[in-house]
Amino acid sequence: MTGPVALAATDLLAVEFSAADSLAPLLVTDALTGVFDWFLTAVVGGAFSWLAGVTGLDFLGYPYMQRAYLSVLCIGVVGPLVGSFLVYRDLSMVGDTLAHTAFAGVALALFLDATLGLAVPPLLGALVVAVVAALVVQALVEYTDARSDAALAMVLTGGFALGSVLISLTGGGISVGINQYLFGSLATVSRADVGLLVSMGLVVVGSVAVAYRPLVYVTFDETAARASRLHVRAVNTLLSVLTAFVVVSAMRIMGVILVAALLVVPVVTASRLGRSFKQSLLYGVLAGELAGVAGVTVAYLYGLAAGGSIVLVALAGFVAVAAGRRLA
Amino acid sequence: MTAVSLSDVAFSYGDVPVVDGISLDVPEGEFLGLVGPNGSGKSTLLTLMLGLQRPTRGEVRLFDRPAHDFADGERVAYVAQDVTRTARDMPVTVREVVRMGRYPRNLFGRFSAADREAVAAALDRVDIADLADRRVGALSGGQRQRVFVARALAAEADLLALDEPTVALDAESREAFYDLLGELNDGGMTVVLVEHDIGVVTARASRIACLNKRLYFHGSPDDFADSDALAAAYGANQRVLDHDHGHGRHHGRREESRGHARTDPEDES
């Protein structure tokens, strides 16, 4: 074993747990946690450290960079996968809305911790509030006269308003903890965060694989799907919940403000390339992966914000594809 | 057997009535044309027939079951006005859309040989097999509407409901499309067509229902042409003139003594 490999394995085991680590028992059993530890240490750590040795890029051997890369690899899959069922229904802002309500969830969890001493993991707070917000948006559209864009705007601003009020109630004391969720960070992605991402990634990919046909039918022609007696409301609820999962699991590295970009930008890029919907899904995932990996690399090399770097690379990819198509 | 049965059906948005007191039956194998002025409730009535909305009064039955409880999705197919922006922008192929017709029968399982044969036969039947791998958004309006009819054929649907399907088509494509509908109806498929062009409906349909919130006429195209229902429903002095569509079933078009020569294709109801 080379030096970097040994260093990575040791460091991975020594990674300190953040408050979000307490989420792990909620998501996986002890046995699965052990398997994940082995996967993170032996498979991911080994592979990246081998790459570090081969390429001479030392940062590939750093455990926090390995976690960052694994995170964006997961986000690059689940973001476009779910986003493909949002973008074509003019629901691109759903991800942004749920991210801002997830911010309220983080603020609520930190507020409860600061004022009542209740140790609620911030990402759990984010997940609960984002799922509730997703259902509220759906109810607003179904049961009121609200247009979907107006409903999204109301929930988005309402979520962010709640978060800002909760922060002010603590005299700004929790704002330091909030910042890493607002803007994202490479360095603060913990092992538990990666565990959450991988777990939710498996749930999202499995759900989309099982419900692919109803999802694509409802996305393409909701009225015809209803006439054919597909359970459109259930499909919409599933899509909302999956979007909440993606947003919450990715917000630690992307940041609340930018997390929605990977639900939208790779999908729009892929829509110009794919000849079929399945092919577009594949291209969307590839675009997401490229943006994630390149963005994290650029962020590390130049000391930039990870979320912003990833989004800018994704947008550059869109511009390149659009220009290429125009010239072709 | 009756495909659709409406009994004293009313529907309103809040206090605003959209349709009121509609009673009519659509026997299996019938080609019913639904006509009426803009905002007369034609599209709403179609959604009520399909059980997509529940009436505020009265009863809607679909194949002898309450429409809102009707579960045999494969028996019913719906074709909207020209495709939405979604259908134009979404990178989906003709084959992928036609396969959707099989989803009510096979939503989660592996596609069987019967499923694949039904899709291939539907593509052949509407003469778009050579377009199967093209993106729907890249097709002409007439080709796109054929794709949606192919989806209904793949479903092996018994009832085809269409809401002004030819709004965006040129005259030639429109004629070809209605020829296709006529052939499907001759083959036994029940067709309910919402259409703003009364000439087309009276020429193609076996029965006409003319409404403007309430039902002004329900009967044969010949009786419709001879009746004063058109003027009563549209609120203008109008009559149906004979003219040749070149397909022989019936001829006619609406002429107004005042107002627009043709109803607005957008039915907001």
Automatic annotation (TrEMBL), chain A:
GO terms under cellular component: ATP-binding cassette (ABC) transporter complex
GO process terms (BP): transmembrane transport
Location of this chain's protein in the cell: Membrane
Pfam families xrefs: ABC-3
Membrane topology term: Multi-pass membrane protein
Keyword Repeat among record annotations: no
SUPFAM superfamilies noted in UniProt: ABC transporter involved in vitamin B12 uptake, BtuC
Keywords: Membrane, Transmembrane, Transmembrane helix
Transmembrane portions of the chain: 36-61, 68-86, 123-141, 153-182, 194-215, 235-268, 280-300, 306-324
Homology family: Belongs to the ABC-3 integral membrane protein family.
Descriptive protein name: ABC-type transport system permease
UniProtKB/TrEMBL annotation, chain B:
Catalytic activities: an R-cob(III)alamin(out) + ATP + H2O = an R-cob(III)alamin(in) + ADP + phosphate + H(+)
ABC transporter domain residues: 4-237
GO MF term list: ABC-type vitamin B12 transporter activity; ATP binding; ATP hydrolysis activity
Residue spans of biased composition, Basic and acidic residues class: 253-269
Domain of life: Archaea
Keyword set includes Transport: yes
Main EC class the enzyme belongs to: translocase
Role: Required for corrinoid utilization. Probably part of the ABC transporter complex BtuCDF involved in cobalamin (vitamin B12) import. Probably responsible for energy coupling to the transport system.
PANTHER family (alphabetical): IRON TRANSPORT SYSTEM ATP-BINDING PROTEIN HI_0361-RELATED, METAL TRANSPORT SYSTEM ATP-BINDING PROTEIN TM_0124-RELATED
Family that this chain belongs to: Belongs to the ABC transporter superfamily.
Binding partners and assembly: The complex is composed of two ATP-binding proteins (BtuD), two transmembrane proteins (BtuC) and a solute-binding protein (BtuF).
Protein name: Cobalamin import ATP-binding protein BtuD
Source species: Haloferax denitrificans ATCC 35960
Classification lineage: Archaea, Methanobacteriati, Methanobacteriota, Stenosarchaea group, Halobacteria
